[in-house]
């Protein structure tokens, strides 16, 4: 049986890296007595895969990993047992069974993510920045220099920004994600800062991921659906 687990990660645990988060959940599965399936071979390991590993220092209320179970209790019971083992700041929000016809791993399904950007005290944009968000998006192209092992190349990130809007004192972003066109919110913030003619410390912004989506649209039309919606609760 394949299940998809949705969890949040906030507070000091945001500084725990991806590999340590993976090990943490493996230990939590054992403590909660979740009957996880193991791989075969000389070095068996729990069959788990994360949809889109989060960068160190970012918080989330919508991250996912998939895992294989040999047997299961109800979703509510597994959530209760897991959360009883969790450290402060990490909490399992849902566990849903994934049907065979939708059993592609979460990482292969990811196409977009929502983020909420806030500012550290005294480190925000200058007054009037909210009026420039719409103008920034009205640009036909937004170029950014991307550095890779092969060198530096200029890419147009405008098609990868699906939404950008002001929400009170924060910025909401919906960006392309996944293995092909993955746009980090830090890049958008850098591009917007350059548009305003300002330079910011990377520590000026607090980035919070809200949700991860797959795309059920056809013929070029997007229909973004949260990854958990592809599964059903186990009774």
Please provide a written account of the structure:
- It is a single chain.
- The chain has 235 residues and is α+β, with helices and mostly antiparallel strands.
- The protein has two domains: 106 residues, 2-Layer Sandwich (Alpha-Beta Plaits); 120 residues.
- It is built from five helices and twelve strands.
- A hairpin with a 2-residue loop joins strand 6 and strand 7.
- The longest helix is centred in the N-terminal third of the chain and has 14 residues.
- The two termini are 14 Å apart.
Q: Helices, strands, pairings?
A:
Elements: E1 2-9, H1 18-31, E2 48-50, E3 59-68, H2 75-83, E4 90-97, H3 106-109, E5 112-119, H4 133-137, E6 143-148, E7 151-156, E8 161-167, E9 170-176, H5 185-196, E10 205-215, E11 224-226, E12 232-233
Parallel strand pairs: 3-10
Antiparallel strand pairs: 1-3, 1-4, 2-3, 4-12, 5-9, 5-10, 6-7, 8-9, 10-11
